[in-house]
Amino acid sequence: MNTFLHDVLAGLNAMPKTLQSKYFYDEAGDILFQKIMSSPEYYLTNCEMEIFSGQTQTLAKTIKNGFNSFDLVELGAGDASKSVHLIRELSKQKVNFTYMPIDISSHVIALLEENLPKQVQHLQIKGLKGEYFEMLEKATQISSKRKAVLFMGANIGNMPASEAITFCKKLRALLNKEDLLLIGFDLKKHPKIIRQAYHDANGYTRDFNLNLLKRINKELGANFDIHAFEHYPSYDPATGSCKSYLISLKKQTILIANHAINFDEHEYIAMEISQKYDLEETENMARQAGFKPVKHFFDKKKWFVDSVWEC
Ligand code: AVI
Which part of the chain is the Histidine-specific methyltransferase SAM-dependent domain (predicted)? Predict the structure, then answer.
């Protein structure tokens, strides 16, 4: 059984039903995520862009931390539209670095390897296609240079807090004393602003969630009727958890590769968590995972933070 089918069946046979948001990103999902990122309600991208484009020199100095030769590894690089500001600055300063973007999509890696050298002259780039930890390990095998790791976009928020700590511990275990991590968190703010970011007027976030049912239909031969499910986003200021659900609008049975999955009317599928933090919580996470938080970069509104953690 392939992993996707295995995970989908395990999730939909569980109580409560759940699907993993890492599966949102097929070709259609990538396009919808781009649309979300350029929606006026989805402030996260603009905030982090403001940090990378407005504080580039201080970022470069902090990342270098006195070293003039290292590898810049980016976990989940995407189109690198934010990190390119840092990359350009390091290149301008004649820092001897190799940019190592890690992404699960070979398409993303191919695009970066083709496009970035056009934007940054003499850039040394080595794309790594695969899972974060496996590829980070590979990066350390390819080169023994110091590593500065970027994990941006509030991607850490897509794990529940306890999992996030485990993730950071694993990351720490792969790094050495002089290495460093820059990690992006979406900060707690007025609940209305957060909820709107996941409930955009154009319905891109709704379509992004429903697209996973379409993907299951297409790739696993299932028969979800997407009109029989409704997207329900929620934000709880008490916990900082922003969650997306799909609600079954009727009692129904879905067939996935000959497995029947029964839904009650109004039963939900938990689709995604986007955890929001306050600064103290991020610092506690750093320490629990064996890092030392040393610097915070905020946007003007202090809605988002890119924190630098030393090993
Ligand atoms: C990728 N990740 C940080 C996004 C988030 O904000 O949780 C994914 C997303 N889901 C809905 N909108 C954006």
Answer: 6-310
Token digits of residue 47: 């905030």
Q: Distances in Å between the alpha carbon of 171 and those of 44, 147, 181, 208?
A: 24, 12, 9, 29
Phi, psi of 125 (to 5 degrees): -130, 135
Is the pLDDT at 101 greater than 80? The verdict is yes
Q: What is the DSSP letter of 22?
A: G
Residue 88 in this model has a pLDDT that exceeds 80: yes
Confidence check: pLDDT of 84 > 90: yes
Q: Give the largest CA-CA distance in the chain.
A: 63
What's the number of CA atoms in the CB half-sphere (13 Å) around residue 152? 28
- Contacts of residue 262, defined as CB under 8 A and 6 or more positions apart, other chains included, come to 251, 252, 253
Does the pTM of the predicted model rise above 0.90? yes
Provide the 8-state DSSP code for 199: S
Residue 105: what pLDDT?
A: 84
pLDDT score of 239: 97
Q: Is the CB of 157 under 6 A from ligand 1?
A: yes
Q: Which two tokens stand for residue 218?
A: 């297409």
Instruction: List the residue whose alpha carbon is closest to atom 1 of ligand 1.
Output: 155
Q: Reduce the DSSP state of residue 250 to 3 states and report it.
A: coil
**253: burial class by Cβ within 10 Å (0-12, 13-18, 19+)?**
exposed
User: Could you report the predicted ipTM of this complex, rounded to two decimals?
Assistant: 0.99
User: In a mutational test of the pocket of ligand 1, which residue from 22, 39, 158, 244 has the highest number of ligand atoms less than 8 Å from its CB?
Assistant: 158
- 271/259 Cα distance (integer angstroms): 20
The answer to whether the Cα torsion of 156, 161, 167, 172 is positive or negative is positive
